[in-house]
Design brief:
- This protein is mainly α and about 220 residues long.
- The chain has 14 helices and no strands.
- It folds into two domains: about 120 residues, Orthogonal Bundle (Lysozyme); about 80 residues, no CATH class.
Length: about 220
């Protein structure tokens, strides 16, 4: 009796009930962005790619609930998270709880942004499930998706929260890294590329492993 190879849609169905239906729908619509063209029926590769991608998205977006970067920092938190930009209490207190001012300072003159007074840091703050950040990334994503997100940055959060994350994995060449497995070292490497550090690593490991086990059940299960 012939056995039909699984399709990407079959893998997605295994995630039903584990992630919101809207995410499943968006992944189905964007299958060409995450399914390998060489062998789109390779169950393990599909599971590895989606597990790493969804695991990082789940953590960065607080379970797919947040599509904007949270910049509501207290003075003490600013000194802890951004000591380079808020080295003393006086500076931290001046900016505390003002997301616009914080982002404009922290992201100024890097990632393609202008200086602090330009407001680019806030204009191109983190959006989407993987927190696309900076004018440079918004510009590259605009070319990728065919919509001007530099002119309309909120579209990343409202229209393209998932696809912007898929773009990030493509842009940073992370999908090939996913093929290395779900080891702690691989998750740490991808986490650093996504986060710039290892914030929330234990939760990310949990998410990635849980997604992988759901999509890639043991043979005969």
């Amino acid at each position: 009796m012939s056995h039909e190879s699984p399709r990407p849609g079959d893998i997605l169905q295994r995630l039903s009930g584990m992630i919101p239906d809207r995410i499943l729908s968006d992944l189905s619509d964007a299958v060409g962005f995450w399914a390998p063209t060489a062998d789109p029926s390779n169950t393990t590769i599909l599971a590895l790619r989606l597990a790493h991608f969804l695991g990082q998205c789940a953590h960065e977006s607080d379970g797919f609930k947040r599509t904007y970067e949270n910049l509501n920092y207290s003075a003490q938190r600013l000194k802890t998270v951004f000591p380079k930009y808020f080295p003393d209490s006086s500076t931290a207190k001046k900016y505390a709880k003002s997301g616009k001012e914080i982002a404009s300072r922290v992201y100024a003159e890097r990632m393609g942004n202008g200086d602090e007074s330009s407001g680019d840091g806030f204009r191109f703050r983190g959006r989407g499930y993987l927190q696309l950040t900076g004018r440079d990334q918004y510009t590259r994503f605009s070319s990728f998706i065919g919509y001007d997100c530099v002119l309309d940055p909120d579209a990343v959060a409202k229209k393209y929260p998932l696809v912007s994350g898929l773009f990030f994995f493509h842009d940073q060449l992370l999908f090939p890294v996913c093929h290395q497995g779900i080891t702690t070292e691989t998750i740490k490497h991808i986490t650093f590329r996504v986060n710039g550090g290892h914030h929330g690593l234990e939760k990310r490991i949990h998410y990635v492993q849980a997604f992988f086990e759901k999509m890639n059940p043991k043979s005969g299960a």
